[in-house]
Amino acid sequence: MNGRHQPIPQMLPIYPMREQVMFPHMVFPLFIQPDEMPLIEEAMRSDHLLGLVMCSSNHEPLVFQDLAKVGTVCRINQVFRFPEGGCKVVVEGIKRIRLVIATQMSPFIIAKVNVTEEQDSGGLVSEALVQSVNALLKIALAYGRPLPGDVVKMIDQIEDAGRLADLVAVYLNLPVGDQQRLLEILDPLERLKEVYLHLTSEVQKLQVRGEIQSDLAKRIGRTQKEYLLREQMKQIQEELGDEDPRQAEINEFRKRIEKVGMPDNVKSIAEKELGRLERINPASPEYTVARTYLEYLCTVPWSRGTQDLLDINLAQKVLDEDHYNLQEVKERILEYLAVRSLKTTTKGPILCFVGPPGVGKTSLGRSIARAMGRKFIRISLGGMKDEAEIRGHRRTYIGALPGRIIQEICRVEANNPVFMLDEVDKIGQDFRGDPSSALLEVLDPEQNYSFTDHYLDVPFDLSGVMFITTANIMDPVPHPLKDRMEVIHLSGYSDEEKVQIAFKYLIPKQVVENGLEGHTLEFVEPAVLKIIKDYTREAGVRNLERQIASICRKIAKEIAQERTARRAITSADVEDLLGSRKYFSDVAGEEDSVGVVTGLAWTETGGDIIFVEASRMAGKKELTLTGSLGEVMQESAKAAMTFIRAHAEDFGIDPDFFTKSDIHIHVPAGAIPKDGPSAGITIALSLISLLTRRPARRDVAMTGELTLSGRILPIGGVKEKVLAARRAGVTTVLLPERNRENLSDIEENIREEMNIDFVSSLQEVVDKTLLPPRRCTPTEPFADHSAPSFDHCP
What we know:
Elements: E1 11-17, E2 27-32, H1 37-45, E3 49-54, E4 70-81, E5 87-104, E6 109-116, H2 124-142, H3 149-157, H4 161-170, H5 176-184, H6 188-213, H7 222-240, H8 245-259, H9 264-279, H10 285-299, H11 312-322, H12 327-342, E7 350-354, H13 361-372, E8 376-380, H14 388-391, H15 404-412, E9 418-422, H16 435-442, E10 451-452, E11 459-460, E12 466-471, H17 479-483, E13 486-489, H18 495-513, E14 522-523, H19 525-534, H20 542-560, E15 568-569, H21 571-578, E16 596-603, E17 606-618, E18 623-626, H22 631-646, E19 661-666, H23 680-692, E20 700-702, E21 705-706, E22 712-713, H24 718-727, E23 732-736, H25 748-753, E24 755-759, H26 762-769
Parallel strand pairs: 1-3, 7-12, 7-13, 8-9, 9-12, 14-15, 16-20, 18-19, 20-23, 23-24
Antiparallel strand pairs: 1-6, 2-5, 3-4, 4-5, 5-6, 10-11, 16-17, 17-19, 21-22
C-alpha cells in the first residue's frame, strides 16, 4: 500500500529526535540502540508506522511537555539488525501529525495523534514562488552549494508548494529550531514563503563569501564596491560577535518585551510588531511609527506598581499634617486603607471632591498619594474638548500619541497611582468628540480593568488606580458620569478655621517661600482676623494666602533696604501694609427699611448675602425684574407675586393692589448674574414688606424656595450661607424646616453664636422678620385717590 494513502491510526509509538527534524517525503536512517528495540518492534506491529517528534530536552526520563506539538508520521521501509544488538532503520516521512496526549511514557512513548491534512496550494502566487525557489537553488548550485543530482532533478519536477518547501528545508542546513518552526507551518504557501526567505539569505551569504574569496578580476562600480565592503564588514562583525546598531536595537526590544511582564495577548502583539520592524527598511517612515509603538508598549507598566503603605495611623498623621479638618474625606481614605489591609485585590475608589475654590481639593489629592505611598498624577480637564486627550489617537495619523491617561501612567512608571482629574465640571464638547463620555469607561470600576487606548489598541488594567475628580459645582457634570463617582462635598471654612489654617499652614509656608526663616516674624490673631474679614471674601483660603504673602514680601523689602523690619504684625500693621479695607460686610448696623430684605445665596466661591429691593408705583399691573436675574430666579419672583396676590388678605394687603400699580423688584450688583430658586421667600417677603409698609429687620437673613401652594422647600449650601451671614454681621438666619438635618454640618460654636430658626410657612417668616408698620401721611395720591404713595415715609 502507498504510505501516503495508508490510514494512520490514532495511537502511535513516538521516537524523540534531537538533532534533526523529520519532514514529509524525506528518507532518513535511524540508528537504534539495543534498549530502544521494543519501540521499533511496536512500530512494526503498528503497520510499520512510527512518529518522529522533535525533543527539546536531553534529560531522562522525558516528560510529555519536552516534545514538540507537531511531528511527522513515518513508514519503516527497511530494518538492518546488528549482531551486537540494535539496528539501522530507514524511514520515509508521510504526513504531519499533532500530538494530543501521551498514553504511555515508559519504556517507550505511545501518544494519541491527529493527522493534519495538507491545504490546497494552487494558484499564480504558488507557481511564481515555486519558480523563484527553483531559480534560487540554481544560483546556490552555481556558487558551489553541493546537492545530489537526483535531488536537483526531483526539485525541477515538483510543482506542489508544500512538498517543495519540505524538500528544500531538508537541504538548507537550518538550525533545529528554524526547522521545527517550518514543520509547524501548515499552510503550504506560507511555508514556501518562509523557505524562500531562508534560501534568499543563504544565497546572499554564498554570494558575499564568493566575492570576498575571489580576486576582483575587473573593475566594479562604486556602488557595488560599497555594497561588497559593507557585506564584508557585516561578515567580519558576525565573526567577531559584534552587532550592527539596528540589530542591536531589535535585540534590545526583544529583551525588554521579555522583561516588562506584558500579558500574553499583548506580548504576542509586541512580538508580531517586532518581527514587522525587522522587515521594514530603516529609511521608511513606517519604521519610525512601528518603533515608537513598540517603545510605548515596552514603557507601559503592565505589572509594575508601588507598594501601599497600610499603616492607618501614619496615614492619619500625614493627612492631618497637610490639611486642617476635612474629616469626611480623611475618614474615607482611612476606610479604603483598612479594607486594603484585609483584601489586597480591592478596586480603587472613584471619588469626586465638590466644593468652592481654595478649600484644598487639589492639594488633598497630593496628600492622599503621600499618605498611601503612591505616585501622584494630576491633569486638568478644564476646557478639554478633544476626546483623543483621553483615549489617544489612532496610529494611522501622523504624530499619533496615546491619551493623557496612558501617557501619565507611563511617566510615573506605576500602574496604581493616585490620579487626579481636576475641574471635571469644566469639560468642553465640540466636533472632536465629548471627553466626558470618554471618561465613562475610565471612571467605572466594572469597565476600566480593560481600558483600551486608541493608540495602544490593547486593553490596560486601570482597576488599581485611585481616581479623584474635583469640581466646584455638580450641575454641569453629565448624570451618567456623576453616577459613577462617590461625591464628597467640601464646605467652606469658618473664620475660626481660617485662623487655624493660617497659623498652622499658610504663615509658615509663606515665611519660608519669602526667605524670612532667619527673621522672627509673628502674626497676632486679631491681625489675621482682620485680613480674613476686611481683605478677603471667599469660602477657601486662597486669597488669604495671597494677602499673607503680600505682607511677607513687604517685610522682605524692608529687610533688603536695611530698614527696621517689623517682627510682629498687628491689626494696625495690616492696614498699613495692605491699604484700606476692601470689603464691607456689616449689614447689622444699617437701618431697617421697607421693601428691602436680606437674603442668602450660594456661589461657586461659597456663600454670600444678597439684598432684594421692591418698589411700587402707579401703573397697570406690570412686574419689572432687574439685577441680571436668571430664568429660574425670575420664575421665583413671579411665583412669589402670584402667591401674595392669592393670599393678600391673609397678610393684610388690599387684594386689588396690583390693579393700578406696577411692581419693580431689583437685586443689587446687577453686573453679576444671579439664578436659582432659593431666593423665593426673600422676594416674597420684600413684596409683603412693601405692601404692608412693615420694615424688614436687616439683621435677619433667609433662604428657601417658595411654591405656589406656600410650601417652603429645602435648599443646598446651608453651611456656606450661614457662614456668609455670620461674616455680614447677621444674627438670625431663617432656614426651611426640611434643612434641620443639615444643622450638624455647622460647628457648635457658630450655632451657639447665631440664632438659626427653621420655618415651614411664609407667615412664620413674616412674624420673625417684619416690624410693625410705620405711621405716616401719604404725600402724592394716585389719580383715583385709592392707592396712596408712601415714597416719602421716614
